[in-house]
Please model this.
Amino acid sequence: MAEQLKDLADDRALLGRTSTAERVSDILRSRIAEGYFPPGTRLSEDSIGGALGVSRNTLREAFRLLTHERLLVHELNRGVFVRVLTVEDVEDIYRTRRLVECAVVRGLGEPPYALDGLAGAVAEGRAAAGEGDWKGVGTANIHFHRELVALAASERTAELMRSVFAELRLAFHVVDEPQRLHEPYIARNVAILEALQAGDRKKAETLLAGYLDDSLDRVVEVYRRRVGEEG
Model:
């Protein structure tokens, strides 16, 4: 936790002069999505408030916002914890992803498309794999899908999916088999990117739908086993 708090203190500059609960929640959401606070972690008001330099009331409001997004849970007389998802949660996350991400690709219009962000995420994933950093590959994979959603140029869609991707990272953290989970999708990200570079959004959507279905099956299989073991 000490290392996480040190990194969190570095985020104080992001708050600027107006330290709002929304900005605090943005920082914590990002940290949860990047895996700094694993599922089941108790979030200390004193430690996090001190690291960010914000008041207790501001932090509590940020916690409330993230609880509403299903990233945190408040347990009476115990405090605030990063949520541990159920298998049903994981299935619903993927249902949402399929609905939104496939619709984004379907609605792209005529090529060429602005694919620099997707290409950058692919390069990030390859570089992490080359270093054996499979957690980094998982982060790059989430960045790939975030950039895919950004192609819709819709702030409302991007906002919706930010919390969905943060929830997804909670599931990945429980699965805890990062190489087996993420390695197969490096090549599949490349295939989707290449289809979009060729202007073939129909092929890209087909590839994406199969990708998400296969990923769901794999994650649920391992997640169900891990949750059962820990239960």
User: Anything to note?
Assistant: The mean pLDDT is 90.
